[in-house]
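Please check this.
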Amino acid sequence: LRAASARYQTTIFALFLLAIASSLLLTSASRPPRAVTGILSGGGRLASRGAASWMRAASGSSSARALADGAVAHGELLPAELVARVPHREKLVLSFVLAFLEANALPAQLLVNGGYVRDLLLGSVPDDLDLSLCLRECDPAVTVATVMHGLPGFALERPELNVSSVTITTILSDASKDKNVDTAKAHLVVGSPPERIEVDFMPTIGEETYDEFNRVPERDVRGTPEQDALRRDLTIGAMLLHVFQPRGSGPSGGGGAAAPEAAAEALQWRLLDFYGGLADLQRRVLRSPYPAGADASLVRASVLRYAEERELARKMGLLPSDGAAGSPARSDSPAPAGAAGEGAEALQVVWWIKVLRDDPLRVLRALRFSAKLGFQLHSSFWLAVPFALSSLQSKVAGSRKKDELVKIARAGREPLLTFLDLSFGFPLPNATCGGGGLPCLAPALFGGADPKGVAQFLSPAIVTPPEGANLSPSSASPSSASPPPFLHHSELPPSCELLLPSPVDPAGLPPLGAPPPFSSAAMRAAAAKLPQAVPEEEALGAALAAAIYSCRLAPPAPPPPPGARSAADALAAGAADAAMCEVLAACDGLSASNEMRQSAHTPLWCVKALLDTPPQLGMFELLATAASRGDGGQRRVGGREFGELLHMWQSLKLASLFAPDGAWCGVGGAARRTPGYLPDFILELAGTRCERPTLLRLREQLQLLQRDGPPISGEALGALPSLPPHLRGTMIACLHVLCRIEGAIAPLSDKASLRSFLEEHALLDALDAEWYVDAGEGKEKGCKGRELRPQYEQAVNRPKPKKKGKKAE
């Protein structure tokens, strides 16, 4: 059986190499067609600009040249220029593990897997060293756990190997222990000076089986490297590196064995690419590995086990009405190596259904890699997604989704926005054809079960197309003058460009539904004002707020209150109120950190506050008049505008963005800033819905308030003995606004300086008379025993956003 298997594998391997060579020749001769998200990322603004610039820079790198020249291939040794990119300390770790296997006569293969191989081939410095041990030829008693238990003692016995200590942390849940999952995490201290390295170990996994109630599969831990690669979710992450010592060069001490440092550098690295990951790296396409030589009918029967799944497959054109094998929508990417026409494409779709359904979080991972790397998602992805939507909502914990979202935010601003474009703006197959009832992925991605077990998600209504909207690929005929119809963006601000002006061929799309009512241009216009200095979770929360505010929010439209600026501004404020409810539900479901929650909620609250009409008080007229009397006055304002300036100062917490000496330091230099208070972003977010004159007025007012001003001490308020205690904060804010209107920068840090300032502006007696019913006749009493006018009985500070209980981090 082994001999027959070897001959079979040799034949398949030869065919595979032939297909790779043909693919390389075709790639060099002509540009390959684009996959479905090639329409998104191939020639338009949804492409990750950071990833695109990186790819241009890497095109001349040694890794790119090695890929293009065919120097890297399945079963071949890595070229020296790629091996040189592996950090020396990690070579020491691998040499140490190989020495242990040799010393214990264990016939195990040592394999590097996952993103480490992908990053190495892409030309970046790899990290997160993940290792697999193929124990297929070992005694059944040998497991990863037994190997791990031997490593600490081996490090003490062989100090010359340059690994001073090994600490093993086994990561097994109770469920995984019952299912014979054998994984471990090791912390190794290597080299001189010593460096701590974290390494994950696991066996090569064979067949995996999942049950309906637990996402931990039952696994065959004696699988082959090829079986282990097949269980991965993406071909670019399914490549393995078999690491071994050339004969006679190991650091085992006897007969000419090399020194540990030289032995580490002498390691050999053989690439194992069973499923076309190299070709997909070159084409910049994301797809799942699949068993190209398997019987399609058997695979289909094992994957589509239930009647509702088979009915869904028929509606989507994956199966004809009689249940036999059908052909899906045409793929835009070249068929992978070993594929043969429509049967291979159908097998690709069905296998990706299995991959996503086994772990629905892989939906989010695929989007993350597409956004981060600027790679295109194979069209079969969108056909497979509807089969995983139910599990993505009901079985994946919100905290796991949040971890993936933070990784996307960590990749950079452009990948984050591209991910939001794919989540909110790309339509799923029509709900009547089995779209799972969701118009796009966002309602399934942003939410989950909160710490109390209550499921909370974004409402599908905010991304549901208007009734009657539809898209038929056969009838769609995009022109070069307009974006593809399925990416039409509603409510575009006048200043925003339409996205993706290049034409596309709709025949290559899956049977998509109508476009979600989502304005990518509005989201990006607001996000452009996000400072680069904000932390990842704050950027994630703010970008999520911008995405939700760019959806179809249909708040009730009451008549504008008296004094309101316009009906459009009132609707914009109502949309911000509706968006706040959505972001809180999403953050609850994701078990989001307080930083992410505040960053998503606060900007929307500030938008609503700025678009509402602030209260008007008589003291504002007094202060506005005083501002026009100052010698340094630069601008005349009325009482109404003074109230608006005070309202903005308090709503945006602008005082926290100034240095102690009164100089403007902005978001990046503010040490006391609360997450979410991002003035320029908030104004741009409001501008995506409010009237243009309103946005221009808000910008002018913010520019005025960003002037340098004097430091003002609370002790100085002793110059106003009649000031009611609950108005102290309001009075300090009024003084800040007053000084910025007239350009005053002299410090007001004691009673004498403030009294002189108030007397110069004729405010001491005027304010007392404004606050109290006795019109200033009892000012010698201070504030005790005097009756305030009704409008001053409560603080006129801005109302604070409602705070909910502290959420699980």
